[in-house]
Amino acid sequence: MICQNCGCSLQENFCPNCGEKRFDSHSLTIKHYLEETFEGLAHFDNKFFRSIKALVATPGKLSREYVEGRRVRYMKPVQFFLVVNVLFFVLTLPNRFRSNPFSQPLQSYMQFSSYTKFHTKEAVEAKLKKLSIPFNEYELLFDEKMSSNSKEFIFLLIPFYGMLFFLAFIFKKIPFVGHLVFATHFIAFIILWFLVSNYVLGLPYYLIAKVNYSASFDIFISFLGIAIIFSYLFLAVRRFYKAHWAYTLLICIVLGWFFWGIVQYYRMFLFYKVIYLN
Description:
The chain is mainly alpha-helical. The chain has one domain. The chain has eleven helices and no strands. It has helices at 30-57, 61-67, 77-91, 106-111, 113-116, 120-131, 135-152, 157-168, 176-209, 215-241, 245-277. The longest helix is centred in the C-terminal third of the chain and has 34 residues, at 176-209.
């Protein structure tokens, strides 16, 4: 029998050359099509939830399993990240709840000195003059674009953090791809935390307090997020890189500080993208 994919002669159920399954006309029946579909979904679910469990319950394990060659039980890093990103995109609460930390409303760029020092007010005023529309109308357009754009470029954090991990643990002689894998899983955890905190903390607060935003609650969420992300990074680095706890603590402090700085500049990048390119 000839493999329909690569033309190799084969006797097994799967081609020894390319892995293609032996063709059977039964595979074109509705029954087989449905069986194959449900089997694929079940297989995907098992890998996804197994990956989630390893990511959250045992920080660093998912990356360690990948670089040591135990991969069949889990989703591939980029595939896993894309699924998490899609869930974040679909399930994030509306922007008025400040549920997306990568996205900021136009009012923030007009009021807070951390943004206005980059001449955001002047840029908005020039944009309004060019479009000849009132601020309230442009605000709706800006916030909508900011919310959608913020989720499209999160993947840029992966190579940046991959390089930081590479520089911090260059003495470990781990291939650069290993650092990228660890960075992928780390950013995926951060996204999951932001998504879960929306429903566990943000939504209940809104339903109880009946307000969309509170400065004190926002500070509380920010500090809680910092504590959780820092703790997770410490445990993940210890397990994946097997570094001394003191060096791990130092690296986590530095990289944790870098993260919030990166988020700040990421927001500025999105601001000027929306202002000048949308």
